[in-house]
Design goal:
Blueprint: E1 9-14, H1 18-34, E2 38-44, E3 55-58, E4 61-64, E5 70-71, H2 75-84, E6 90-92, E7 100-104, E8 107-110, H3 124-128, H4 134-141, H5 157-165, H6 167-182, H7 191-194, H8 196-205, H9 208-217, E9 233-236, H10 241-249, E10 256-258, E11 262-267, E12 278-282, E13 288-290, E14 292-295, H11 299-306, H12 311-317, E15 322-333, E16 345-347, E17 356-361, H13 362-365, E18 374-382, H14 394-409, E19 417-428, H15 434-445, E20 451-453, H16 463-485
Parallel strand pairs: 1-2, 1-14, 2-10, 7-16, 14-20
Antiparallel strand pairs: 3-4, 5-9, 6-9, 7-8, 11-12, 12-13, 15-18, 15-19, 16-17, 17-18
Helix pairs in contact: 1-16, 2-16, 5-6, 8-9, 11-12, 12-15
Length: 498
Amino acid sequence: MADARSRPIRIVVVGGGIAGLAAAHRLVELAAAGRVPVEVVLCEARPRLGGIIATERAGAYLVEAGPDAFLAEKPWGLALCARLGLTSRLIGTRPALRRTFVMHAGRLHPLPDGFALMAPARFGPVARSRLFSWPGKARMAMDLVLPSRPARGDESLAQFVTRRLGREVLERVAQPMIAGIYTADPETLSLAATMPRFLELERRYRSVIRGLRHTRADRPGPGAITGQRWTLFVAPADGMEALVTALTARLPVSAVRTGTRVAALERADGAGGSAGRYRVLVDRGPALDADGIIVATEAHHAGRLLRGLDPELAALLHRIPYASSAAVTVAYRREQVAHPLDGFGFVVPAAERRPVLACTFSSVKFVGRAPDGHVLLRAFLGGALAPGILDRDDRALAETAERDLAAALGITGAPRLTRVHRHPDAMPQYLIGHLNRVAAIEAHAARHEALALAGGAYRGVGIPDCIRSGEVAAERALAACRLEMDGQGGAGGATRAR
């Protein structure tokens, strides 16, 4: 490595999604706070930054290509917005109608009040609900008396829900709710990696229902976050891309290289006057020397980039599978829709055998998403249980969604606006044993100084999780580079994006 004291530390971030942007921004913050000269280079293969986050303003409609909000419960998203000066532009969901519907036997039923993803905190609303049969309700109540399971390794979400609450809860609520979050199959999804809270409830209270009652008593109300004015979900009033725009504006113009596809990463051999411990090979143009690297791409892409540097690490990364999905956004005049739309949307169990996984009533959930007298709906298709969905063209996807929504919501006539957004191999699948795989990935990556991994593939798929992973990766990568600069180099670079 050339004399690091004579030049800035160069850290290359590969991938311009939210994790990569958060990493690059954090490097700029750390450099300014510590008065350390750092050159950040952010390489993104596509012509724009943001990954699946993109917002379109189509007349008076606001259309999201990817996520339409982020969780306020996890602090990293709100903290970043505060540092970016976005707090005053954030809005929560509408205060009324915060409920979800579940399709059963072709009809939409309200999810009983107090149902937390896959278990109830109160039994009164469940008893009155037509979503469950009386045998199903009785089986659900057995959670109150069943013993807890001794720790015996990882368990699938389906196994846990069936064991505690019964098959009916799995098929009618847990499966469609989880599909809406992870586009995953609950039979193969790791409970410990996705819903560790429920494991803790069973361990601490023996009963999931009893545990939810205790923890719910500590909360101020449905959807409220203690000490904050936010609802459970928040978003910039002008769309999620505002977060991308704000992050990009904080980066030096010279740092951003869109349309730059990284082909491989390798160790620098010092030949030809190269500076840094790594070389970043790009499809077009000269290779980049780097003191540190943050790989913030999908795991399978990271595996391809790292194949020459560390074949074992690459193989581990390829063991994290991904699912594809599509979002179809449609707009109608309000009188075209018979359903009262008195909620934020609905989910569809796989047992219903319908192509739409879920639908968000976007213009009900957030203000400013559609003009007065109109509604904006987003339907989701695909996921792990429908792997071939993207084989269809956009017109076929749109027609499929329109037919399904028309049947579910009583819609007549053609939509006034239609948008189709594809997300191929975009959602990591946290299969049984995922945490062990991530631990092995982190252990292998730790062998490479100042090499960091970030993104949704490891310890959380949500926007706040990805922000945190990028920021932690930046902190660890820069710390490793500074150790080298101070003559204290060694293994154990920034690898864990937890």
